[in-house]
Specification:
about 110 residues, alpha+beta, 3 helices
Length: about 110
């Protein structure tokens, strides 16, 4: 299981990278790097993805500096982390707490 404190330590040690893909998606979504950092430093892990390849990852619920809800997916690579993606959660897909996914309609 990934520990949020370990991810925060990676930030403090400047051991967090953004992939080219995540950088591009964040530009498209108007998400700034400092908002991602704020979300990690003040947020909580709401889902774990231990089987992700090549490294386990997790979904973090946090807030931007302007207090907007944001989700961040980060890996734990042992000595550092990567931002896989970040997005503003969709009201259609998440419960009002933004921690619980809504069931898919059939």
């Amino acid at each position: 299981m990934i520990d949020i404190e370990k991810l925060r330590l990676y930030y403090q040690q400047d051991n967090v990278l953004m992939t080219q893909h995540s950088s591009e998606r964040c530009r498209q979504r108007n998400i700034r790097k400092k908002d991602i950092r704020n979300a990690v430093m003040t947020g909580e892990i709401i889902e774990q993805y231990p089987e992700d390849f090549p490294y386990p990852s997790c979904l973090i619920l946090g807030y931007t500096e302007k207090k907007n809800v944001i989700h961040v997916v980060m890996s734990d690579e042992g000595t550092g982390s990567r931002i896989v993606t970040a997005y503003f959660p969709d009201f259609e897909k998440w419960q009002p707490d933004f921690k619980t996914r809504k069931e898919k309609k059939i």
